[in-house]
Design goal:
homodimer; alpha/beta; Aspartate Aminotransferase, domain 1; 2 domains; seven-stranded mixed β-sheet; three-stranded antiparallel β-sheet; 14 strands; about 15% strand
């Protein structure tokens, strides 16, 4: 295939891949039932636990992030189980859809797209319905650029009501603090192409003791995503099904890089760059979807398409004339916003480039601040 | 990570990756909702149809081969559906386990490990039980090195009884002829790390009109493996969930290589090398698990561990002293056989190297022909 030109890829995942991760991924194939692989998966699993800030079991699945989230549902629930799924965007909606596909009796709680999930509403719902078994929450809603208050939600769900807590952390883990043990999260799923700076194709999930207990009576059917198989294989340094080896090589290098930088510094870098992005957007005279800094995501920023501006023309010119790839909206906001991803492999200059290009393109597509 | 030394990797997948596929996989990340990806997936899908010899829909999933096989079950069946699953090895057993995990009422038909599935037995079973909805068959049983007579089975299942036919073609497709349309197979699943010469992490599945019809009433729950979502996304040049981009780059190059070589030549190469392997094994005085050339697989050869020989010592010396990686057995044959993979990226010299090394190692581990 013709070699592609590297772009300033500012979608909220996949992210650009650092050169030495690309290099690591070119390592030759090995026997995934052999000693080299056993050493590889054991090392990466231990390092992943540091990034997840957990002593829980940590499993690596060959699937997109959605696969890990499906695993969190089918390994803890039975058809007919009453669960709360709180949603304020396309990925919250997806969590609802998945739980319903497997027969959960979902109490869907909708919050405004662009706003946070209200912990108080969850407290009230848990109080009103004592038979709720689990609460499903998105940590960082990629479609709107909101970081939901999972710490507060966890205090209620776990501390006050002692229910299962399943977290979609696809676009937050490794970028925004999510201390799995400190917040007592039962299942936390994320994916390789976001904070981990490697290509899509792997997902990671932490599983608490409480989640394993739930699994023993959980009757939703499962095979590929049966975490018992994954846990048993891991004890022998294997996976139940052939793993994505190239991404495993990349992951090993990526985890070294993250832990060398130090997770506090990685979180700090994302916070600084998130702020830089929002400040830059405001300075251009554009309106943020999420004005409240308390909930603004440090991994993705959604910007309202100004009146009179053609979103597709804007994104097209950014891509073809400035080599900057932005993302459109999703779901009901598809045409109303555009998004800048700033997670994983990102530094300030990447964002400065975006702002410089927007400054040129915006007037060309009819923006009159 | 420390760079690994390339091995003569003779497991039945993953296979070594040709250099220009490795090179293609280092292409930079792109927006998987953008125009470059749409062009990529459309091209590869059309080329995959040529390899599958089908006009059916062809879908690419980010999962191991087992994921595609789970998709074939959950998209066509409902809990309680009576199905036949014929098994003569570890992967036949896995197909049974998957169908049972999702609540199918499985008529399990066991055949000797190392022997073929008997089409006549399937005819009798279909005759005796008119309420059978589907037949699940492995084309090439990786654990024993047997190619099952799928053409004859298909004539019975489709031609005589008009039932759904679901095929595990993980270690055959692209290596051993499996003309999906000519044999009228409803669902055929395979994986990237076998005949396709790319790393694990993608699987491919063909879906007949008849299978889509079955899907409309199929009640097994599904989300990540819901092929309706994949089909709908493909119409827009996308996948429902973030795809394994690196492997997609490799796939594109691999399909060019396969089609340039010509599928007839690719099949011929596998047939020649399969024969070379079996002849070499016999010449060393070893016993094949599959003596009957009519069923001997052209992608993997199983060899009985000779009396007095320590299988682990044999494989260990081959790996550490001769850089040749063989596979052990699986399931109930774990310690009784060892296997040589000869599929995907393989030529005669790879096999000659194996035989030369075996000639040295066998006497060292107690072999006395």
């Amino acid at each position: 295939m013709k070699r592609m030109t590297p772009q300033n890829l500012r979608t909220p995942g996949p992210t650009p891949i650092p050169d030495d991760i690309v290099e690591a991924m070119t390592n030759p194939m090995i026997n995934h039932r052999g000693p080299e692989f056993a050493a590889l998966i054991k090392k990466s699993t231990e390092q992943l636990k540091q990034v997840f800030m957990t002593k829980n079991d940590l499993l690596i699945l060959t699937a997109s992030g959605t696969g890990a989230l499906e695993a969190s549902i089918v390994n803890t629930l039975s058809p007919g189980d009453r669960v709360i799924a709180a949603t304020a965007g396309a990925f919250g909606d997806r969590f609802v859809d998945m739980a319903e596909a497997y027969g959960a009796d979902v109490k869907r709680m909708d919050f405004e797209w662009g706003g946070p999930i209200d912990p108080e509403a969850i407290r009230k719902a848990l109080h009103d319905e004592p038979n709720i078994k689990a609460v499903l929450v998105t940590h960082n809603e990629t479609s709107t650029g909101v970081t939901h208050p999972v710490e507060e939600i966890a205090k209620i769900v776990k501390g006050e009501f002692d229910k299962l807590l399943l977290i979609d952390a696809v676009s937050s883990l490794g970028c925004i603090p999510l201390p799995v043990d400190a917040w007592d999260c039962d299942m936390v799923g994320t994916a390789s192409q976001k904070g981990f700076m490697i290509p899509p194709g792997l997902s990671f999930i932490s599983v608490s003791e409480r989640a394993w207990e739930a699994q023993q009576t959980a009757k939703m059917p499962r095979f590929y995503f049966d975490l018992t198989l994954a846990k048993r294989s891991l004890e022998g340094g294997q996976t139940p099904f052939t793993p994505n080896l190239s991404a495993m090589y990349g992951l090993s290098r990526a985890l070294d890089l993250l832990l060398e930088e130090g997770m506090e510094n990685v979180f700090g870098r994302h916070a600084t760059i998130g702020q830089l992005t929002r400040d830059g957007v405001r300075e251009l005279g554009l309106k943020l979807l999420v004005e409240d800094e308390a909930y603004a995501s440090d991994t993705v920023t959604a910007i309202k398409v100004p009146e009179g501006v053609d979103q597709k023309a804007l994104m097209g010119k950014m891509r073809t004339e400035h080599n900057v790839v932005l993302a459109g909206g999703q779901g009901k906001l598809t045409a109303d916003i555009f998004r800048i991803g700033h997670l994983g492999s990102v530094d300030k200059s990447d964002i400065t480039e975006v702002m410089d290009a927007l400054r040129v393109v915006l007037p060309e597509v009819g923006f009159d601040p």
